[in-house]
Amino acid sequence: MKEILSRITEAIAAYKEELAQVSVPQPGETDRKQFTLLLSGISTCRKVPGIPEHMGYESLFHCRTEADAAKAREHLHQMYGISDKSSLLEACRREFSSSTQYEQFLSFWVGAPLMDLKDLTEEGRRFFLECRDSAQVFYPILGEKGFYAWDINEKIGLCRKAVACGILSEEEFWELTDPWVRQAQVFYHSFQEYAVSCLCGAVYFMRMYEEDLESFFQLNLNLVRHLFAPGGVWQKNGWYVPKKREWANLLGVNPGCLITKKALQEERIGYMYREQALEDFPDSGWRFFVGDETEEYINEVENISMIGFSDICNIDPTILAYFYAQPGCGFGKTENNGWVRES
Question: Of 6, 158, 179, 194, which one is least surrounded by beta carbons within 10 A?
């Protein structure tokens, strides 16, 4: 398995460099609804029973006949156990959660583990470490960008198929996919970045099936190449940039933290530390700075704001993995946009 992953990661790294040379439109030229459909680019390329044609990226597709819709519903039920909105959401959570696992592993790689492995059973610890080691080979390529793109691509694609056969309404589709679109905006700034994450996520998703892994990777690589071919939808459409920032909830919880107004206004963080949380406040204990504020500036109450930790991660997603660092830890930003512990 290590040899296979090594070959695949080398191929992805090489393709990442190739993608950097692809000419694409400037961000901001795609509307939000089309962008949502474009995020399902890879998934949408796959045909399923009842949907024999490409669903397109201009609008939501609906099966041509009730017989086709019935075939698609049967396929979704057999493959994922989907029969209604509730079971669809459960399938999305169950099948496409690689990004959540990557978040957990990332907290270990940066030295701020979210848990003590001693608290796991021997079997649980062994499984966790096997998964963590499999994911770590992608860390030099992805950094904090993780496998989010793969999960987003697959979940939106699954929801599109549910709309096509009548399990979801169009209104429900836009509501369900909204958080994933916001998440994509936080971690990626181009379809090139998104594509690389998709490829890495696809390999991690399929890692348990060693005999099929390389062929599965090649299949998805071919689909990505198709999307970036001249006239392909990821080649001719720019990454969506909203006129007003769309905040994403990245943690599920959003405890408060203190940040200087300079860091907030400039959306630039160069130093952070964690202290004991304030009592009687929903405080995480985290404090954020540009790094060049004077002591006099920091001591002025009007120069400090309290916002949610998840909101800070929207500004700088490299911070996300450090949430569980212990009080007393301080980190400074490096030239390559990483963090180094300073206390």
Answer: 6
Both tokens of 228, joined, read: 């970036």
CB-based contact 168:61 (threshold 8 Å): no
- Is residue 266 within a helix (H) or strand (E), and if so which, with residue range? helix 261-266
- Cα 285 from chain centroid (whole Å): 26
Q: Is 107 helix (H, G, I), strand (E, B) or coil?
A: helix
Q: For 35-51, write each residue's pLDDT tens digit.
A: 999 999 999 999 899 99
Q: Answer whether 19's CB lies under 8 Å from 144's CB.
A: no
Cα 81 to its chain centre, rounded Å, is: 24
Report the first-to-last Cα separation within the chain, whole angstroms. 38
- For strands 271-274 and 330-333, give the pairing: antiparallel
Amino acid at 336: N
Q: What is the dihedral of CA 128, 130, 135, 139, to 10 degrees?
A: 90
Which tokens is 235 given? 């080649």
Q: What pTM does this model have? A: 0.95
